[in-house]
Specification:
13 helices; two-stranded antiparallel ribbon; mainly alpha; single chain; 69% helix
Length: 334
């Protein structure tokens, strides 16, 4: 090949093998940052293994739920290319569905998933078909403001219906588990397991079913998907509904362990956006893995900066990772 000839695709594909494989970079970056954070926390606690273990267990349990919320957000962005700023409001809706069924009808909070998920799925279909679809193709700023307006509408409707007084959902028995010396309540363990099961089910659906293949095709190349007969408008509706259902499911999962107010989902909104950018826009595995990272950063940040908000640790890790990989951990870009 001459000096002026462009490299062939095969040559470009082989280039990463000369250094660190691209798929290993996210893991190495994360391990390096985790090692530094763990070492600093070790020094801060004077080597207290119990405090570190507690932070590790609590961070992982919280991170699983964060990952489920972020999964819905990144799924919508990856396919529809819109920024759903109403994610937190849909998490709150899931909480209130569980609260109503649990307090008024005596349902087990986790059993309410059979109502909250289909309800949010149906709501997602209606919103996408009659509202979001009209803004498709507009700038990110326009769709962001539209979804922000939807979120404010939901929150204020909940405020009118339930007032601003905090509500709570209680399970019949909340056992305490001992995990390597750390304490974890049954509600947190169930929330983590439920979130991981739902996230795994969605991932398998995306990878192994015809509808999942169609969603991935539209995300990759909408024009090409149309040419092979895929109804892209239908896929947009299904994808948005699935993303909203993930948020609602997360709301149900955390309802026994949070104080329920019309703005309770706002913290999940901020956290989910951090996770999605950190893991890579539109990356499903990035959302799950990023959720665990943020959960751990939140807890270890509380150790390193006890007088500050736990979110300080999250944003420090966020800035560090984006400094090392601006495109996000799981993005295929160089």
């Amino acid at each position: 090949m001459s000096a002026t000839q462009a490299p062939s695709p095969a040559t470009e594909a082989e280039a990463p093998s000369r250094g660190i494989p691209v798929n290993l970079r996210p893991i190495l970056v994360t391990i390096a940052i985790a090692a530094v954070v763990f070492f600093l926390a070790f020094l801060r606690t004077d080597g207290s293994g119990l405090i570190l273990t507690q932070a590790l267990v609590t961070g992982l349990l919280a991170g699983g739920v964060y990952g489920l919320v972020a999964l819905g957000l990144t799924l919508i962005f990856g396919v529809l290319h819109i920024i759903n700023f109403a994610t937190g409001a849909f998490v709150t809706l899931g909480m209130y569905v569980t609260y109503v069924l649990s307090s008024n009808f005596g349902w087990n909070p986790y059993l309410t998933l059979i109502v909250s998920v289909p309800s949010l799925l149906l709501l997602g279909i209606v919103i996408q078909k009659f509202i979001i679809n009209r803004a498709m193709g507009e700038s990110h700023a326009n769709t962001l403001l539209l979804t922000l307006g939807i979120g404010l509408l939901i929150e204020n409707t909940l405020l009118l219906l339930f007032s601003g007084n905090p509500q709570s959902v209680r399970t019949s028995q909340d056992r305490v588990f001992n995990i390597f010396g750390a304490v974890a309540t049954q509600s947190r363990v169930i929330a983590f397991i439920g979130a991981m099961v739902l996230a795994l089910a969605l991932y398998i659906m995306l990878q192994r079913t015809p509808i999942g293949t169609a969603i991935r095709a539209v995300a990759s190349n909408p024009t090409g998907a149309k040419l092979v007969g895929i109804n892209t408008k239908r896929i947009y509706i299904i994808t948005f509904a699935l993303g909203i259902a993930c948020a609602g499911a997360a709301g149900t999962m955390v309802s026994p362990i949070v104080s329920i107010t019309p703005v309770a989902g706002e913290v999940f909104n901020i956290t989910a956006f951090v996770i999605v950018v950190l893991g890579g826009l539109g990356k499903v595995l990035g959302a799950l893995f990023g959720g665990l990272i943020v959960g751990l950063a939140e807890q270890f940040g509380g150790i390193l900066f006890p007088d500050q908000s736990n979110l300080l640790g999250v944003f420090i890790v966020f800035v560090l990772i984006l400094f090392l990989r601006p495109q996000g951990l799981f993005s295929s870009g160089s």
